[in-house]
């Protein structure tokens, strides 16, 4: 059975938040196994693929599986717009009362959409877009004659976590800003809803309000604030302030004093003082606010998880949803006494919805619980030597062929060079895990400063992650667990912090990727060769992009980033370029 899962970004102009307008993508599952998956942003170069249909990612996954639309049995749509009727009914009054002709028209469109959804127009729209294809390319071959399955937002998140986890039938918790009318859902081992928290009471929106307060306009800048939190300190006044706004206990939480307010940032200003203007430096007060925002989020979610596991009587947990990208939070969850094992879906944000939609569609069509092999995230496009050489020739650049790219790259890193590393199939999800990466020497802070300043063009205080040989993880990580997906925080033992300062955050923490030979042979060989040069089995790894752009997907994009940044070298397939 061939199943296509898609996450469409379809906007209808509603004034309500949470329209699902971002992170479009596609996934192909054949006979229960994941064949290919990719985010649309990598092809269109529009960060988060805002308001884009996943035309290019659909084309890619079909090509990767050597299928046409006619070969697809089921298409899972990672969105159930009929649920938005409930969202309209439960929305705060100030979100529904039109204050201008534009608002009135938008509200009319939203109500009209609900009527249309119940007539099947939503599926018709998806069907039309799939067969039309992107105007810049030829339409997909064949005609889809199978069935559509619409899958709600949080069900997609839950499926992506439950069906991909190592543990047998784990308990699942999904937490994000909003999906239709839900923001947090607790699931049992059979993926039945146990408890649902509404969009008005959203942990993701709570954190996003803090992100906005700190001068970042977008909720997906939450990762920056998580890093900033380590620069803050405890303040009794801030602790009391959050206690006055947030209720936690009895397996429940309530953040609506902030999230249900007409001006969430205004509520925070009334409690903690003026927001940070976007162009200002961070004051200590704002750093301390970030510290308390993070710790309060940890307190909420760990309480939910601990209470939920106690209620269902199970100790194996899987997480998904945008909030599950918070690796500091994930460490606190992992350390709970009730948690015997933790799986966090690597594509925990909305990029993973297409995966969840595909797997849930498999479940419904087959009547059986999917059990795909999930030991990698390298589901994206790859380019063979001929394709890479063609791109280099077309670009008319100087390059050389190298007998052992891993060994050559390791030598360059040992000499202090910052390199682009483009190999194999692209990663699925937001983390670069050694195939579309920028790499540097971790043994001096100056290398991290150079990557921030001259390559990534981002804030100087933001931390970098290490890729560590799995054989040596217990030497460089306090907890010493395997972390193949760079999604759970750990600490660097004090004896090792001076050895790898470029990947040790100000509080001694780090967001590691442990690399085994089985995970990624060539990347493992690179780190092993670097270990021979330096005695350090660790490299600095960050995504191959610059601030504001998606991770590179193609050789052409890799070349463009190489020549427009301070990268010293590019190792792309079997070829080396230097400046």
Structure overview:
This protein is an alpha/beta fold and 579 residues long. The protein has 22 helices and 22 strands. The strands form five sheets. The chain has an eight-stranded mixed beta sheet, with helices on both faces. Strands 3-2-1-4-5 form a five-stranded mixed beta sheet, sandwiched between helices. The chain has a five-stranded mixed beta sheet with strand order 8-7-6-11-12, with helices on both faces. Helix 14 links the parallel strand 11 and strand 12. Helix 8 (203-213) packs antiparallel against helix 13 (284-312), helix 9 packs across helix 13 (284-312) and helix 13 (284-312) packs across helix 14. The longest helix has 29 residues, at 284-312. The radius of gyration is 23 Å and the shape is globular. The chain starts with a strand and ends with a strand. Residues 12-19 and 85-119 have low confidence and may be disordered.
Features:
alpha/beta, globular, 579 residues, 5-stranded mixed sheet, single chain, 22 helices, 39% helix
């Amino acid at each position: 059975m061939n199943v296509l899962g898609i996450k469409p970004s379809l906007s209808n102009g509603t004034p309500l938040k949470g329209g699902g307008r971002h992170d479009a993508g596609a996934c192909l599952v054949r006979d229960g196994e994941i064949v290919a998956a990719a985010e649309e942003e990598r092809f269109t170069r529009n960060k988060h693929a805002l308001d884009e249909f996943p035309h290019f990612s659909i084309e890619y996954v079909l090509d990767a599986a050597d299928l046409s639309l006619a070969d697809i049995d089921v298409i899972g749509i990672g969105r159930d717009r009929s649920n938005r009727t409930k969202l309209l009914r439960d929305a705060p009054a100030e979100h529904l009362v039109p204050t201008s002709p534009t608002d009135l028209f938008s509200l009319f469109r939203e109500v009209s959409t609900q009527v249309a959804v119940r007539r099947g127009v939503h599926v018709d729209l998806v069907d039309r877009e799939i067969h039309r294809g992107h105007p810049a390319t030829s339409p997909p071959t064949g005609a889809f004659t199978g069935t559509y399955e619409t899958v709600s937002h949080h069900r997609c998140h839950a499926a992506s976590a439950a069906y991909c986890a190592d543990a047998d039938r784990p308990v699942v918790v999904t937490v994000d800003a909003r999906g239709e009318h839900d923001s947090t859902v607790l699931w049992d081992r059979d993926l039945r809803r146990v408890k649902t928290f509404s969009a008005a009471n959203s942990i993701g929106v709570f954190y996003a309000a803090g992100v906005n307060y700190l001068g970042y306009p977008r909720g997906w800048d939450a990762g920056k604030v998580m890093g900033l939190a380590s620069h803050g300190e405890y303040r009794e006044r801030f602790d009391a302030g959050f206690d006055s706004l947030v209720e936690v206990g009895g397996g429940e939480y309530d953040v609506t004093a902030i999230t249900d307010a007409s001006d969430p940032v205004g509520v925070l200003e009334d409690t903690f003082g003026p927001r940070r203007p976007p162009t200002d430096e961070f004051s200590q007060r704002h750093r301390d606010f970030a510290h308390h925002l993070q710790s309060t989020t940890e307190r909420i979610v760990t309480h939910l998880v601990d209470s939920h596991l106690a209620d269902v009587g199970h100790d194996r947990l899987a997480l998904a949803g945008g909030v599950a990208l918070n690796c500091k939070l994930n460490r606190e969850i992992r350390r709970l006494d009730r948690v015997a094992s933790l799986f966090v879906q690597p594509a925990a944000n909305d990029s993973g919805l297409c995966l969840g939609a595909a797997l849930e569609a498999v479940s419904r069509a087959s009547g059986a619980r999917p059990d795909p092999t999930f030991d990698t995230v390298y589901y994206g496009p790859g380019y063979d030597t001929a394709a890479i050489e063609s791109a280099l020739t077309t670009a008319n650049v100087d390059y050389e062929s190298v007998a052992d790219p891993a060994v050559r790259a390791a030598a360059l890193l040992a000499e202090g060079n910052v390199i682009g590393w483009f190999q194999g199939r692209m990663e699925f999800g937001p983390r670069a895990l050694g195939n579309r990466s920028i790499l540097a020497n971790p043994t001096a802070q100056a290398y991290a400063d150079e990557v921030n300043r001259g390559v990534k063009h981002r804030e100087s205080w933001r931390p970098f992650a290490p890729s560590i040989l799995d054989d040596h993880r217990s030497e460089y990580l306090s907890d010493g667990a395997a972390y193949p997906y760079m999604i759970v925080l750990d600490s660097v033992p004090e004896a090792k912090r001076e050895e790898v300062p470029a990947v040790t955050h100000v509080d001694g923490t780090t967001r590691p990727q442990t690399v085994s030979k089985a995970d990624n042979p060539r990347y493992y060989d690179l780190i092993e060769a670097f270990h021979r040069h330096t005695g350090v089995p660790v490299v600095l790894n960050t995504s191959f992009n610059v601030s504001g752009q998606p991770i590179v997907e193609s050789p052409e994009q890799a070349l463009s980033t190489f020549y427009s940044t301070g990268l010293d070298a590019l190792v792309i397939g079997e070829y080396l370029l230097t400046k």
